[in-house]
Amino acid sequence: MLVLPAAAGASVDPGSALHAYMRGRLADEDGAPGLALKSYRQALASDPASLEVARRSYFQAVISGDMALALRSAAVLESEGILPRDGTLLRIADALNRKDWPGARLLVDHMVAEGNFAFLAPIMRSWISVGEGRYAAPVIDPDDRFASLARRYLGEHLALQALGRGDLQAAQPAINRALALRTADTDEMRLLFAGQLAARGAKAEALALLPETQANFTRARDDIASGRALSPYGRALTAGQGFARLLARLAVDISSDGSTGSLGIRLARIAAFADPNGAVPRIVAADLLSRGGYVAYAVEEARMVPGAGWYGALAQAELVEALAAAGQRPEAIALARKLAAVPHAEPERHVRLGQLLMQEKDYRAAAEAFRTAQAGYSNDAVPWTLLLFEGSALEQGARWDEARAVLERAARLAPDEPAVLNYLGYAQIERRQNMDAALALLKKASALKPEDASITDSLGWAQFVTGDIDAAVPVLERAAAGAPSDATINEHLGDALWAAGRRYEARYAWRAAAIFAEGETARRLAAKTREGMKPEYAAR
What is the pLDDT, as a whole number, of residue 7? Predict the structure, then answer.
């Protein structure tokens, strides 16, 4: 077992388990997952009974995609009854890969006893029956308290299993139900269903799932329409592939709130273990890894999906995000331009390009990208988000008259959208234009979203610059309480407190702002904290 040295000055053998473990811990803390993985692998090999090494090795191995190390670590943890709940899913994936159907069933029973993922058991058992060659449809117990959650996934798997049996009559309504339950992120599901339908002679039904006005489907539509061989897109799913789809979808769902927690990443990785040649688990993993800060792994995963395949465009979109997150912005922009230049490019491609250009402060090109994203909509149906993006790029690019016209159009289309009202109102307050109308916009935005600290700050600052200091101070105090690390909000509060004669508190607010400020803002805050407020020190 791994033990710490008894004395502070004790020497550590560079080849020992302890040395490797310590190196792994340091690599973890320094954000070097590759070195951490290598170190934990060495430590576990040197001391295979160490629970602490096994615990850290398990998480690092799953996140990095090392199934062999993950399984070795899981075995140590399971022997002591401390395997994380997703470890049981890993063991199920391993059993399915080995076609150990009885073992897989026992592990699903164990998963049910553990509780966390029990609602998935009927679908998992059904896929095991596919592997066994004696199909049994998944049955959801209506009295189960998680029955409604399980039904969210049922339609997709009933459809895939029916397609695998060649039962198109049963498959079509299940396909419709599965797509109806997904209001977003349906492209990969449409591609999968289309490939399965086309391979079974339902060419028209397959093409109907793939709108010809979307570039994400161009390759698939061409292949189906021309009658090209559809392998591997039309093969019936194996038990492991069905299990992988279930976990990949669950990973997406538990991360849909923007969470960057590691559970979603681990589920996506386990899905890829179960379907190592599948595109979708890698696309999901690339997204979640990028959001979780594991950008090198995200780039690697996205690049493992063939760019010329049906899922290539979806993977390339994730690659753009991963490259940008990895600091490889020129490469990300070049790829984003390429993706946005194809016929029928979806609005999302132009938005992705525009956002990258905004980060580069190329506001003119960004505005053009956001404007191009609107091309497929009628004038009264343009999403307000696209107009807000364009207006923001124009405003930051010092094209205020154009920006104001775009933002006013957004406000007409979305009169109750707080983000639009806030941006238009605050931009006018900054320029001291239409002050009464701008203040009214900000009051409405704040009433619609009173918990938003940024909008609260906009309202308080508007009240301050229009001379209503008594009203401004409590509003800005509320904003600062909601966002205590926001330099702009704390500076606004300090300026208002100074004007109200509360100078000690003003300096306190400026000092709080200075903790997070940079550049000219930091210099301005230091000056007025030292000298007091002067006209040239007013917040910008």
Answer: 36
